[in-house]
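Morning, I've got a small favour to ask if you have a moment. I've dropped the whole record in just underneath, so have a look.
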Amino acid sequence: MNLKAFDPHRADFVCKHEADVNPPITAESEALFQQGMAVTSYELLPKQRDHAKAAELWKQAAALGHWKAAMNLAGLYETGQGVPEDTEQAVLIVEGLMKQGVPAAFDKMGTYHQRGIGVNDDTSRAYAFWQLAADMGSPAAQAYLGSKLQATYDNPGQGFWGNRDVALKMLECSLAQGNGEAAYTLALTITGDNRSLGEDNARALKIYHGGVKLGSMASANDLSVSFGLTEPLTGNVIDKDRARRYSELGDALELNPDLRFPNLDKVLPLPPAELPMWDGKRKTLIDAAIALVALPAVKATPGSQSSGRAHIPQGHALKAQPHPVVVEATSSVPHSGYWLPRLHAMWLDNANQIGPSRRTEVSLSDLHGASNMNKI
């Protein structure tokens, strides 16, 4: 296909979201997709993960139009997990998604051209694909190009350019779609006190914290370091307790990149809020930071009328209390989940190329990198 050449000095960027153009997903295909996710979960030991079963499930889901399942399936063909390694088949799957207008597929095709997977390696063409994907709404492409354009000067040999205004727009757009890598890069970019460059430590701190919610290990690790030192980002105050909690979250994300912490503010609020009690166990912290699921309403019973508690069994009404009883209300946090691609792996930099190597697809048991799907 004809592509518009990558322009690192473009004058503007218009934010678009991939959710507005992606094909709809049926309940049946989603169920198959999630079953595939379950048998390859990072909660399982590597030897327990069944990639062959996942391939079968994702083939079925892809046949029903589930584009995320198709992207994961292409990743299996790239690495030969659960299926024979077949990069040509991976390219064909991605091309099929491109015909459906899936932004993530154009982002993926850029990776193929950068690394020569099923096609001839061509860095210039790779950047052209990433530019198109970003314009179509791919949060992964927006985050990646934003990281390449956020410098204050050009150095093509090292793979970055000075187009800060466009970079910030791309990063903001990607972050709005729930991309943790965008949060990390944006926070890193605006950390400092140079207002003319848009630097703002107070906002950067909030974005870093939001990045942790979105599963950014780098954000968690940066905050752990910053709270352990005297730095402007964290108000020049050393807070070892917060540093340790962010460190635990970062370690957990290294083991399971699929984790998301939308309930983070309940267990690790930003200053000046006080930290709640914690028993020091990582599992306790992780479980509390993971989203709570809203429970369905329970039908009231006679016993609940005097107590206000709907779960009291029939015939067990409490006697009236001589004094009012204050019940501390608790609330659940509904959460539908964020989506980051399972098989879109690390970004590798190579200073010997025109631009750094994009991302390297790795197995589900290897290190996981950032791209754009919630549980792909």
Summary: The longest strand covers residues 150-155. The chain is about 45% helix and 5% strand. The CA atoms of residues 139 and 177 lie 6 Å apart. The beta strands are 150-155, 160-162, 346-347, 359-360.
